[in-house]
């Protein structure tokens, strides 16, 4: 797919999932029982050389839902996110087996167009990583790369994305100033605006608040919760209060496996597995 896609006229709808699978998520997101599967992970194993970092994960990530990944450090949460948008391509020792699908696209296929995949799956990291460019150019980066879009539409899309990421009012008078001059919390919301400007279906966030102060954390948490009306969101967090505040479903990872996945409230208050209970009650971590 080397041709640039032409941006549809209705800007805010560019991120709508177009080809998600028809089957409902087995156990059903509490907030949205009709949710379709956005990411289907089947019999997935991942390795770094001989070391197996992920073991036989089977997990459906529903659309329009926040799914939290929790679990102790080193249990494979980031590795799974990296495989979902093929960031492990640059790690020579990394290899994997099994299947990860969004709609009809088999992510692990060698032929998969990684540039287009990353348009469909936005990624937000622990440390905000705006480009050393203006605020405007950060948000315009994805649309310029992926779409033929004229200046007026681009300006409209940049504004729409910044509003959607709840940072417009704070940056609208300095759009052409460097993004690096923003506070950490503003930079993180800018990075979210940059991700959504490209029209993704899915947002992956790896500990998106852990480098932020409490005030910025709460703004980003509110934003994540609102964005789930449109996107499938996966959020890794070490903070269990954060998982309960802003996720609908939670998957508990331990030593490379998903021990349990379910509605967040149920997983925290009435877990099925002993190991989950020990973790959520702070017996280890
Ligand atoms: N690039 C890499 N090379 C080798 N081992 C790695 C690499 N990245 C992660 N790992 C190992 O894979 C395991 C899972 O790591 P990670 O996915 O980062 O865990 P988490 O995000 O849950 O803390 C850990 O044992 C980690 O040391
Ligand atoms: Mg991690």
Structure description:
There is one protein chain. The chain contains 10 helices and 12 strands. Residues 5-30 have low confidence and may be disordered. By secondary structure, the protein is an alpha/beta fold. The strands form 3 sheets. The protein has a 6-stranded mixed beta sheet, with helices on both faces. The protein has a 4-stranded antiparallel beta sheet with strand order 3-2-5-6, with helices on one face. It has a two-stranded parallel sheet with strand order 1-8. Helix 3 packs parallel to helix 6 and helix 6 (184-197) runs parallel beside helix 7 (214-227). It binds adenosine-5'-diphosphate and magnesium ion. The site of adenosine-5'-diphosphate has 11 residues, from helix 1.
Main attributes?
four-stranded antiparallel β-sheet; alpha/beta; binds magnesium ion; six-stranded mixed β-sheet; 285 residues
Provide the list of bound ligands, each named once: adenosine-5'-diphosphate, magnesium ion
Q: For the largest beta sheet, what order do the strands appear in spatially?
A: 7-9-10-4-11-12
Helix content: 25-40%
C-alpha Rg, in Å?
18 Å
Number of H/I helices: 10
Distance between the termini: 44 Å
- Seen as an oligomer or otherwise, the chain set is single chain
Strand content: 25-35%
Q: Main beta sheet, described?
A: 6 strands, mixed
Low-confidence runs of at least 5 consecutive residues: 5-30
- Give the overall silhouette: globular
